[in-house]
Design a protein that fits this description.
single chain; 1 helix; alpha+beta; about 35% strand; two-stranded antiparallel sheet; about 60 residues
């Protein structure tokens, strides 16, 4: 039982979380493992309905 508790405790100590990095950083500026997050609303300009039309052909993309 003591060994089981020791193994569980060391597994919790050795865990590490991802680092949250803003999207405006260069590719080589962030450590591994990292999570790129849109902290400055860079991607909001792409949200909406996008429509391409060429004659009778239509292509509609909806980004939420």
């Amino acid at each position: 039982m003591k060994y089981l508790c020791l193994i569980i405790m060391t597994s919790f100590i050795s865990c590490n979380a991802q680092t949250i990095v803003p999207m405006n950083n260069s590719y080589w500026d962030y450590p591994e493992p990292a999570y790129l997050k849109d902290t400055e609303n860079f991607l909001n300009k792409f949200v909406g309905t996008w429509k391409y039309q060429n004659g009778n052909e239509q292509f509609i993309i909806i980004l939420k």
